[in-house]
Automatic annotation (TrEMBL):
This is Cytidylate kinase. It catalyses: CMP + ATP = CDP + ADP; dCMP + ATP = dCDP + ADP. The gene is cmk. ATP binds at residues 7-15. SUPFAM superfamilies: P-loop containing nucleoside triphosphate hydrolases.
């Protein structure tokens, strides 16, 4: 069974996807982490982020892997744990540009499709229900008001010691929504859920109630 969860940043997608995958004992695939990793290594290796070809070559040299360590999902690239680094605001700021390149998308989409294969999978991203897994058994599209999403990010950042104001976060989120809008299309057969006024448990329950095994 394939479950696709799409939607903009900070709608609770990955938290909900992880919980659902655990409940169902399905593989969880975080596609955003792949685009983030490429951005992180591009910045780290001082690659010009305007150069699609160099970025695509870098991407082809990267091996992705994820493992649960101490109850937390860790993300590895060429055996390096990049779980923390890919969440940095500098990565968030640049990831949409990197993700906009057709050759980057082509490579990652086929990698994501190969990972899913015939397995039971919960995959989250922007284009899962439309492009990566168009015949997924269940498709969900989570949304929430940008101000609510910025507040969530603000609280997460506070825990990590990252100091960005709420206003800065609203601007950053709206900017990322706009840059991602081309690939972030809700599938016609997706179920739309506004998570703005919902707790994570409520969102999980709402999705679980729709999924029939
Ligand atoms: O989901 P997350 O916020 O980690 O995604 C980071 C970025 O990666 C998105 O803002 C988007 O630019 C890109 N992305 C994408 N397609 C996906 C997943 C993420 O373009 N399937």
């Amino acid at each position: 069974m394939q479950i696709a969860i799409d939607g903009p940043a900070s709608t609770g997608k990955s938290t909900v996807a992880k919980i659902i995958a655990k409940k169902l004992d399905f593989l969880y695939v975080d596609t955003g982490a792949m685009y983030r990793s490429l951005t992180y290594f591009g910045l780290k290796n001082k690659i010009d982020l305007n150069n699609e070809e160099l970025l695509t070559n870098l991407l082809k040299s990267m091996n992705y892997d994820s493992r649960v360590i101490n109850n937390r999902l860790h993300f590895f690239v060429n055996s390096e744990d990049v779980t923390q680094e890919i969440r940095n605001p500098i990565v968030a700021k640049n990831v949409s540009q990197v993700a906009s390149y057709p050759s980057v998308r082509k490579h990652l989409i086929s990698l994501q499709q190969n990972i899913a294969g015939n397995q039971n999978v919960v995959m989250d991203g922007r284009d899962i229900g439309t492009v990566v897994l168009p015949s997924a058994d269940y498709k969900f599209f989570l949304t929430a008001d940008p101000k609510i999403r910025a507040k969530r990010r603000f609280l997460e950042n506070k825990k990590k010691g990252i100091n960005l104001s709420l206003e800065e976060l609203v601007t950053a989120i709206k900017r990322r929504d706009e840059l991602d809008s081309k690939q972030m299309v809700m599938a016609k057969d997706a179920i739309l859920i506004d998570t703005g006024e919902m707790s994570i448990d409520q969102v999980v329950n709402s999705l679980m109630n729709k999924i029939q095994r």
